Amino acid sequence: MAIHDAVRAALLFLAASLASTASAEAAQPLELHSDVKVDKIIVAEGQSKHVLSEPDVVVPGDRLVFRTAYSNTGTQEVTDFVVTNPLPAGVALDPSATVPAEVSVDGGQTWGHLAALFVTDAAGAKRPAQASDVTHVRWVLKSVKAGEKGEVTFNAIVR
Amino acid sequence: MKNPTKHFSHRRLGAACGVLPFLLCSAPALAAGVKAGVLIENTATATYTSGTATGTIQSNKVTVRVDELLDVSVAGLTSSLAATGGGQAVLAYSIVNTGNGPEAFNLVAVPAAVGNDFDVVVNSIAIDSNDNGTYDPGVDQVLGAGAATPLINADASLKVFVLVTVPSEVADGKTSQVTLTATAVTGSGTPGTSFTGAGAGGGDAVVGQSGARSSAEDSLRVEAATVSLTKSATLLNQFGGSTPIPGAVITYRIDAAVSGSGSVGNLVVNDVIPAGTSYEPGSLKLDGSALTDAADSDAGAASSAGIAVQLGTAAGGSTRSVTFKVKIN
Q: How far is A12 from chain B (nearest CA, A)?
């Protein structure tokens, strides 16, 4: 019966997708932990140095360092590991610091090196993208071995 | 507050400018600073493949509350205001809250400044309540002694007026400056100084680059005028000579010269008919034009007692000339 077959196929598909979701959640071999610090430039004896501190007092113009630590706590290597971080409202990517290799200026639809990206302004003119145009940053790692740890960071300025 | 755009490296801007029209080279202006109390929240997401399964995990959310930045900029709006000795003057200033939260400011007007020819007396400070740029007595609120402005929102401005009295007896062309200083009520001092829990939006307040204090000067210039009268006489007798004999006619000329950058008001030239002479009816003239003897709509009036010419307001640099004739009895 055609209808019976279709219902059975749908049920099988549903079961399969439930199983796949369950196994992915069960595995969860990775941990992500984010934090944020204020990057103050302290000038002492003519030398300026960056000092990271807790973001107790933050005002526009301050530099922030957002860090995400990852850790493969499972027993298996994971591949195609991609950490994506939408830029929080109220900050702009800091162009004076190292900019992540892959950024997006269109809400995460297209990605590339900042220097290769363009934005269209209100008048319809295309111009090279600037750090303040960045909406998302991401890091792509081919693999994270079992037990491997690392961290990714980006620097931003409070608008 | 700092403008993040200034951190662009010259190399990157240079490269961009090399291939694009000049206009596109300027960095776009960023929106006004993040308001005090705003929460900056960040979460990262990771996707991965483990064997044949794919997974997605999220990091914890980190939150930073933006504190209040205390910054202010005062600008003088009145320059070289024309004032008169003994009169009142209104000096206008603009106060811009360049911080990121609503803030009130204490105002102090100081009439003494280096280089002042004279100092005015500050009577009061008023805010431009109806925001029309002009001081309206009874409408614009006068701040009581020691009272601060109302809260000014971030990036908003408030016009204020300093009402002063100019001392009398100030010579023409003398100038004076009045300094208005605005200081954030929450606190001021060395940039970076923070006031725990005092910020708008529940956070701290931090003194910005301005020190949360700013000053500007307005200036005024006294315009005064003085009048000098010069009287001359020409005698012509009935024989064509200049011997003063009965029947000879004397033409008197009075020049009223006004000098200075201001003007004088209600200027009236009076003269009496000398004893032993009689006014020649119909001889009164102003700047060569005849005036009637009757006290009527024209400027002049003359009688056997004397003459009077109403010159009204006369500006500095002008000279009016009154002539009349008498006959020796």
A: 18
